[in-house]
Specification:
1 helix; elongated; 2 domains; alpha+beta; about 70 residues
Amino acid sequence: MLILTRKKNESIIIDRNIEIKIMEIEEGKIKLGIDAPRNIEIIRKEIYKNIEDENLAAINNRYKIEDIKKLLEK
């Protein structure tokens, strides 16, 4: 993991086409501005984790339903 120190209005560039800029620092919170091409998906990590958990739950439920169907066919 790369750790950088930035001040308000300073930014970093990722892969020559994504800019992350410190917009505001206040009361322990940082506002970030992200300038990236439209084809780059940007999602907060907690939302990404929720989506991942829901997908895993759906997969697990699918297999359980298929198992029940197999039992009923016998």
